[in-house]
Amino acid sequence: MWPYPKIVAHRGGGTLAPENTVAGLRAGLAYGFRAVEFDVMLSRDGIGMVVHDPEFGRTVAGRGSVAGTDAAVLAGMDAGAWFGAEFRGEPVPFYTQFIDYCKAQRIWMNVEIKPADGFEAQTGAWVAKTTRERYAAELAAGDPAGYPLLSSFSFAALAAARDAAPELPRGYLLDQITADWQAQAETLGAVAIHTNHKHLTPELAARVKAAGYGLFCYTVNEPARGREILAWGVDGFCTDRIDLIGPAF
Ligand code: G3P
Ligand code: MG
Q: Cys-Cys crosslink for 171: which of 118, 177, 191, 194, Cβ 3.0 to 4.6 Å?
């Protein structure tokens, strides 16, 4: 049902490093994490980059957008300085760099497909195709903990991922679990529901589990809350507080 790690570092290294950077992966490792969630968006030239916001201004300085900028330019932009001077020069990573690092360090990945508006299907298909190519041997070996779980809030992105690489598992992200969640999850061939713990109830958790789906929550930063939702049957969650909630929580 949930062959994946229970506790996952959110956006790389949570609040211990700039989000969606290799420095974040290093921070996760320093706290013993071998499981990570991060976000992938396409550049103007159609290359998957690890970044959360479609527009510059928060983690990357300046004006402009990810979808309007070529990958080579994005890779030269500073995604670390906003977080702290010691992270100055930390670049926007290519998705393939994250794959290489995670494979080398045996870090399990929950890849959130984060399309810019209008690029849903293209992003889903690119992430699925690239992931399948890079994890061909692991997919053939057949142990789901050995290859990534894709997830997205975008139904269209996940449908495109399903069509491009049906063998890769998919988690359907819902801020709130809707009345028609199960029909949508079935259409997507999803293995799990990923949802905001703030809107979850014990009844909803029981319903998702009774229907045979994995249940994963974001983003849980208080240990007491983590214990509470795990007692409801939640299989796992991601956290920003990798210093408070460890991999063996
Ligand atoms: O994948 C769960 C979580 O990351 C979704 O929210 O905005 O942090 O990508 P966000
Ligand atoms: Mg995310």
A: 194
